Amino acid sequence: MDVGIAESAAQAASIAADLIQRAVRAKPELVLGLATGSSPVGIYDELARRVNDGRISLAAASAFMLDEYVGLSPDHPQAYRSVIDDIFTRKVDIDPARVHGPDGTAKDVEAACIEYEQAIRAAGGTDVQILGIGTDGHIAFNEPTSSLASRTRIKTLTKQTRIDNSRFFGGDLDAVPSHCLTQGIGTIVEARKIILIAAGRGKAEAIRQTVEGPVSARWPATALQHHPDVTVLLDPAAACRL
Ligand code: GLP
Question: pTM to 2 decimals?
Answer without folding.
Answer: 0.96
